[in-house]
Write a structure and sequence with these properties.
alpha/beta; 264 residues; DUF3105 domain-containing protein; 14% strand; transmembrane
Length: 264
């Protein structure tokens, strides 16, 4: 016969056992913690990979960064052509210049520069304004709108968007999908992933050794001069043989009331 004391102990032990076994494992909390840990690990891993990739890109472009000993690193880039132009030659806002390069890389240009502080234009822009932008140190990336669309075009836009001394615009009739222009320099390419694009930009964007007006502005001038939201309409450049005809000036010619070297 079991005593009352033993019965109470038994009941107490059973109650304790029931209480312990009745507690459920907090799987929901564990899962939530695991999700947070995995997410944090993923973010850290992504940041680390991006940082390493950025460092690798910087190292790859180091040889194309201007310096006192290497004033024009674009000479190391295969395919870059060079021309020599006088700066400060201006034409009127309704005049055209018979450029010898297509797209042009320098020469006479409009008094007003095209906004070039990382601007992506969705319509062709008057060349005479963009040439002035290059005189200030901008790199102008032109593309053939019939050959470059979608993700490949986005690759170019990402390189330009909100980046000082950069502009991107379509250029109808371009003989290659892509053409990069800096004052007196040009590189034509077929592939938006070509590493020479970044090399060209690193070598020539705002390079004080390769354009006439170092430190000049690339900001929008606004209505009445160059309206970024409603730029002057684009017109195909007339042939060099048209220079001297009404409204057409030679690449090395300036407006009659604008002396050579007139500046910005």
């Amino acid at each position: 016969m079991v005593s009352g004391k033993q019965s109470k102990r038994t009941r107490r032990d059973r109650a304790r056992t029931s209480l312990v076994t009745g507690r459920s494992t907090p799987w929901g909390t564990i899962a939530a913690v695991l999700v947070v840990v995995l997410f944090a690990s993923g973010v850290f891993g992504y940041a680390l990979v991006e940082s390493q990739a950025g460092n690798a890109r910087a190292e790859a472009l180091a040889a194309f960064t201007p310096s006192a000993a290497n004033q024009d690193p674009s000479t190391q880039i295969p395919g870059v052509s060079e021309q020599t132009y006088e700066g400060g030659q201006h034409v009127g806002p309704t005049e055209q210049v018979a450029y010898t390069q297509s797209p042009p890389t320098g020469g006479a240009h409009d008094q007003a520069w095209a906004a070039c502080s990382g601007v992506v234009y969705d319509q062709p822009v008057r060349s005479e304004n963009l040439v002035h932008s290059m005189e200030h140190g901008a790199v102008w990336i032109a593309y053939n709108p019939d050959q470059l669309v979608g993700a490949t075009l986005e690759q170019l836009a990402d390189r330009v968007q909100d980046r000082p001394y950069m502009a991107l615009s379509p250029y109808p009739g371009l003989d290659q999908p892509i053409a990069l222009q800096s004052w007196g320099h040009q590189l034509k390419l077929a592939d938006a992933a070509d590493p020479r694009i970044d090399q060209f930009v690193a070598a020539l964007r705002a390079n004080p050794n390769t354009h006439p007006e170092n430190g000049a502005s690339c900001d929008a001038l606004g209505p009445g001069q160059f309206d970024q939201d409603a730029p002057p309409p684009y017109q195909p450049a007339p042939p060099a043989s048209a220079a001297g005809q009404p409204g057409v000036r030679a690449e090395s010619e300036t407006a009659e009331d604008e002396p050579i070297g007139g500046g910005s």
